[in-house]
Amino acid sequence: MAERSEFRFKDVGSFIREQRNAAEMSLRKLADQAGVSNPYLSQIERGLRKPSAEILQAIAKALRISAETLYLKAGILEERDDEGEVVEAILRDATITDRQKQNLIDIYESFRKGSEKSEALTDETKSSTESAVDESSNHSGGFEPEHRDEVSPAVSGL
Length: 158
Fold this sequence. Notes:
Elements: H1 2-22, H2 27-34, H3 38-45, H4 53-63, H5 67-74, H6 83-92, H7 98-121, H8 126-137, H9 153-156
Helix pairs in contact: 1-5, 2-3, 2-4, 4-5, 6-7
């Protein structure tokens, strides 16, 4: 079990390094923004130190990624498949129309697919990342207001 735990430290450290490099952020800048020392962050990235949940949260905030992702990589949280639960909850909601339910499900699924794609991109080169971002920016995610007059007054005044 200790061997598996050690692997997770290295896994989370290499993941942090990949995310930092993808964000084109220096070790020093990330350490400063996360409130940790350069050597400590370097040791985390090399899998030599086990970061606490608080440190992972600070690193996630500085990298602008979800803390949950780092918690999963570090073995603090176990991955759940809650997609079905979310869809079931939407379908059970009696206060929204069938069309609204379908729109919510479509939006939720597009976010999940986008999240999976962004994690896969960390393993690719920068050039392939740029082309994938260009490709994904051409898609709106399938959300269009049913009627133009449904835009809120605060937004329409812009």
